[in-house]
Amino acid sequence: MDAARSLPFRLSRLELARIAAWEYARGYWWMFIAIPLFGLAGLAVAPDGVVRYFCTVCLLWPFSIPARAILITGKAQKLFAEDNVAVVEAGFLRLYRPSGKGSSLNLANVRSVEDRWNGLIVRTKKLGFVALPAAAFQDGDHRAAFKERLLAPEVP
User: Fold this and answer.
1) How confident is the model at residue 1 (pLDDT cuts 50, 70, 90)?
2) Is the sign of the CA dihedral 27, 33, 34, 39 positive or negative?
3) Residue 155 gets which letter from DSSP?
4) Rounded Cα–Cα distance for residues 94 and 87 (Å)
5) Quick check: 120 and 134 in contact, CB under 8 A?
6) Please, are residues 7 and 138 in contact by the beta-carbon 8 Å criterion?
7) pLDDT tens-digit profile of 6-31?
8) How far is CA 18 from CA 21, 67, 88, 89, 153, in A?
9) For the segment 30-62, what is each residue's pLDDT rounded down to a tens digit?
10) DSSP characters for 89-137?
């Protein structure tokens, strides 16, 4: 198997939402502490009902993230509903689909690549991500070689 090409893979809406929620929590972990603490402190000293309402919303805010992740991944899920093949070529990460549609990510815009859940998460400089699940790779060696190709500068 070519190190620059993945196996065909799909991502379900729930898998994509789980990854999106994790990425959100990972990037904004301090908000998971600050906002509920503000809500708790506000509930302790709030003089009236309106302030107590907003403090309750702050306290419960982290519980809304899984539902919001499901809502915001709807469009991306349509892209991952059919088989995708990820290919690293000419300085781009390209996702090819049997329908002929595809998408690409310039590797210059990649901020980091991380092993996660036996797959790869490719994070962009604009706070986006591309998830490549474990099913996209034959084994750990294939995943490591693909990651290396993503991170290696393109030599003309």
Assistant:
1) low
2) positive
3) P
4) 5
5) no
6) yes
7) 999 999 888 989 998 998 888 888 98
8) 5, 10, 25, 29, 31
9) 988 999 999 999 999 988 889 999 999 999 999
10) ETTEEEEE-TTS-EEEEEGGGEEEEEEETTEEEEEETTS-EEEE-GGGS
DSSP output for 38-97 = HHHHHHHH--SHHHHHHHHHHHHGGGGHHHHHHHHTHHHHHHHSS-BEEEEETTEEEEE-
Could you give the strand order of the β-sheet that contains 92-96, starting from the edge strand earlier in sequence?
85-89, 92-96, 102-106
Of the candidates 97, 92, 133, the one whose C-alpha atom is nearest the C-alpha of residue 110 is 92
Instruction: State the number of CA atoms in the 13 A half-sphere of 34 facing the CB.
Output: 5
Kindly report the pTM of this predicted structure.
0.78
